[in-house]
Write a structure and sequence with these properties.
Elements lengths: L15 H11 L11 H4 L8 H4 L10 E12 L2 E7 L12 E6 L2 E8 L4 H7 L1 E7 L4 H8 L6 E7 L14 E7 L3 H21 L8 E7 L8 H10 L4 E7 L14 E3 L4 H5 L6 E7 L1 H13 L7 E5 L2
Length: 312
């Protein structure tokens, strides 16, 4: 691959050769893109560096400049960024993540996109939600990032939902732990966009039902609560959610209470949704993804119907 195939923002041009070499080594065969088998996805790569940990995962070759145009606190420990990506060559599928390049920070971040592809198509914007840690990219987001900050992004990941109009209708079960909600929210939002398109035009992909199971320590750590409930209320016959809290001490608000279960997501809850038309997407800490993937496999869910991603 020639280095001219990679678009490099001006402040990254000094690193162009290194980025180009890395991009070449990260390319995976086209057959890897749609569904991953359990055996390939359950390899636990416990490396702290995002680029090392995802070295064998499919990536786009284009690095695109982006500018921070909005920030907000989603929880006491999570900050949301909205990025403007003017490059028309930049696109992603619901569930994918970005390599996140920051001027002056040598470590590259890896953050899931939590907005839908439609937001990018219409407004050239994407949303990320970053949990506070001591990892340099996360520290930069929480301590230094400001409106107008310039960064660069590149799309990667094999965990996505991207049905084509002629594909068979599928139900989705989304299982999230903590900040693992990010790619699943992108999929939930994309599913809502597909429902709207079908209702408006009478054509396009026919979505089945979508059920979200989402677990966090307490309600303050349940991210995007209003966004999730707004979608459930917009599509009451098509979308449902079960929000779980494991260490709740404060009183639960009246608005949230109908959707809250105190305790972990159970195998029984998932078994009620198993069918040949259902795809399962899981994102959370490695023990959680391993547990539910194995549980579904033991209940004879085909491996190609189980997709998951682990975040460390």
């Amino acid at each position: 691959m020639a280095c001219t195939a990679v678009m490099i923002p001006r402040w990254l041009q000094g690193c162009a050769r290194a980025i180009c070499t890395q991009a070449a080594s990260w390319r995976s065969p086209p057959s890897a893109v749609r569904h991953l088998t359990l055996s390939s996805m359950m390899k636990s790569r416990r490396k702290t560096d995002h680029l090392e940990r995802t070295a064998d995962v499919v990536r786009r070759e284009v690095v695109s400049a982006a500018k921070v145009c909005d920030t907000a606190d989603e929880s006491p420990s999570v900050k949301r960024l909205r990025l403007l990506v003017a490059d028309k060559g930049f696109s992603f599928k619901a569930g994918q993540w970005v390599d996140f390049f920051i001027p002056g920070v040598s470590v590259v971040g890896g953050f899931s996109i939590c907005s839908s592809p439609r937001l990018l198509e219409q407004d050239r914007m994407i949303d990320l939600a970053v949990k506070y840690t001591n990892h340099p990219p996360a520290l930069w987001v929480h301590n230094q990032c400001a409106l107008g900050s310039e960064v660069a992004v590149r799309v990667g990941g094999e965990f996505f939902f991207d049905p084509q109009p002629a594909d068979a209708s599928r139900n989705l079960v989304l299982i999230a732990g903590g900040v693992g909600i990010n790619p699943l929210l992108s999929i939930l939002r994309h599913s809502a966009d597909l429902h709207r398109e079908r209702a408006d035009k009478g054509s396009g992909y026919e979505m089945g039902t979508v059920t979200l199971f989402y677990s966090a320590k307490n309600t303050s750590e349940l991210l995007f609560k209003k966004n999730i409930l707004d979608l459930v209320n917009e599509f009451p016959e098509k979308m449902a959610c079960s929000l779980h809290v494991t260490k709740q001490t404060a009183q639960i608000s009246a608005e949230l209470k109908p959707y809250i279960t105190e305790g972990r997501i159970t195998e029984k809850e998932l078994s009620d949704h198993i069918s040949k038309e259902t795809l399962f997407y899981i994102c959370g800490p490695p023990p959680m993804t391993d547990f539910f993937s194995k549980e579904l496999e033991d209940r004879h869910v085909p491996p190609e119907h189980i997709c998951f991603e682990k975040w460390w």
